[in-house]
Amino acid sequence: MDEALLRVENLSAGYGRKVIQHDLNFAIRRGEVFVVMGGSGCGKSTLLRHLIGLQAPLAGRVLFRGEDFWANDEDRRASLQRHFGVLYQNGALWSGMTLAENIALPLAAYHPQLSRAERAELAALKLALVGLPGCDGLYPAELSGGMRKRAGLARALALDPEILFFDEPSAGLDPLSCQALDELILELRDSLGASIVLVTHELPSIYRVADTCLFLDNRTRTQIALGPLRQLLDAGPPEVQRFLRRGEPALQRA
Ligand SMILES: Nc1ncnc2c1ncn2[C@@H]1O[C@H](COP(=O)(O)OP(=O)(O)OP(=O)(O)O)[C@@H](O)[C@H]1O
């Protein structure tokens, strides 16, 4: 079996006729944390939109479990997307609903056979999994920024995704909450065996969680490094090493 859960082949990512990144080639293995990095505006979020099926490739293919995502019709694409969990920057929770109700929402849409009580029970389990046991009845406004991210994550986990996508999850978090979120990411990888795709600028996070790193270059508009963090630190292109080694003394303390 193909070890890659998600594979990208000769992908050009962009909008209309505007190519943001081209000739991207990489594979995301089951159970790994795959970090996408690069300077501001290089196209990290754009790539993510292509990976989660929000944006069709300008060229090339995105394969999920060996299946060409965009060669499918809309129904099949939607059914593949059920295996994707996405954590949006602000958690993307409905403010007028409790956390349990927020998490039960995708369950009601995709598992209508579940009773109300079963949905509530599953929501409670997901909240416990992200370190928010007993918070079922709280509203999003009652949460701190870090708790809101965890609640958003619980919702992203509602349908037991095989792959989780995070776009700048530490934005707006203090260093301790950021570290706690990284630890949770590693726990999810290890306990659920989920693959995790993380877009981040945060060096301490990259050092804590990355298995494989992809570096998108702003100038050439394509990938210039792909591999384990250690390999990029030891033998990556100079600009990638500079990126990874900025603030190194602080990192060693992290
Ligand atoms: N909907 C859109 N239509 C056209 N161009 C867009 C659209 N969204 C983003 N872009 C452009 O795509 C380029 C890459 O943006 P993107 O947000 O993907 O970069 P990024 O690496 O995630 O940036 P940052 O690190 O600052 O968040 C930018 O030039 C941006 O203006």
From TrEMBL:
Keywords of this entry: ATP-binding, Nucleotide-binding, Transport
Residue ranges of every copy of the ABC transporter domain listed in the record: 6-243
Molecular function GO labels: ATP binding; ATP hydrolysis activity
Entry keyword Transport: yes
InterPro entries listed in its UniProt record: AAA+_ATPase, ABC_transporter-like_ATP-bd, ABC_transporter-like_CS, P-loop_NTPase
Family annotation (Gene3D superfamilies): P-loop containing nucleotide triphosphate hydrolases
PANTHER family associated with the record: PROTEIN TRIGALACTOSYLDIACYLGLYCEROL 3, CHLOROPLASTIC
Protein's name according to its UniProt entry: Phospholipid/cholesterol/gamma-HCH transport system ATP-binding protein
